[in-house]
Amino acid sequence: MPEITLADIQKAAERIAALVHRTPVLSSRRFNEAAGADCFFKCENFQRGGAFKMRGAANFALSLSDAERARGVVTFSSGNHGQAVAIAASDLNMPATIVMPDDAPKSKLDATRSHGARIVLYNRRTENREEIGYRIAAESGAVVLPPYDHPWTITGQGTAVLELLNDVPDLDAICTPVGGGGLLAGSSIAAKSISPDIKVFGAEPEIANDWALSLRAGHQVEIPQPETIADGLRTLKPGDVTFPIVQKFVDDILLVSEEQIKATVRFLLTRLKMVVEPSGAVAAAAAFHRKHPSSVKRLGILISGGNVDLEALASICEGK
Length: 320
Prior knowledge:
alpha/beta, Rossmann fold, six-stranded mixed β-sheet, 10 strands, 45% helix
């Protein structure tokens, strides 16, 4: 596997410019007081498809040959990546099949269908989504578009931090949510290449702590199916491609509780008037509850997505 470089991420940024938004960077005085640092939110909840996943999906799709695009793509996703692939496929007029869990949030299922993709549902407790996806690809000739474990996906995701550091160049650290690791891997390459002394943190739920366990053990550790509210971070183990990158470039994994995630979603909604899904709020939750070192005074935070069911959001706001 060739090494991914800053130049690759910069080329990806040029490649995807016509298909993605340059998202804003926001801040909050009240949040900074709670965090004990000046925090800068890279708001990928305002991205097309409502999440950073559009970056990796667009970069992968645009890197395919015309013949490959004609055969179409198949992917597996709990929601945001699937929606991003559906949008990219629609933009490029290519077929797309998305393998999604049958308990995915209705908002994510509906949004993915609205872009014309074919959805294949599976039971995440009894079936393997990768096996289903690769079987469909073998039968149809479609190209598998992985949600995180591929250089094209990783370089696309890294463009978010490229933009953040262009807008706010003097950060002590950045923090991103981590599920499969595509965003964290791409972000860490971009950040450390631009500013070698910057700290890079991943954040994940305490009950979905495969990355924290894996980095501590020095190898990939698989966990049981986690029942975290952060549905986009329910991966069972780090990716084969993303894990060594994170091992090399990331300083630590910060863990947050389910209640801390919910409290942060409520704060972002009520104080910043910003809708953020639980998965998208995990890095902010780590900052809000001071999981980062006290030496960090300027912190870039990836708000990775905003696709949350209204019923789920109402339940969080009611403190349930």
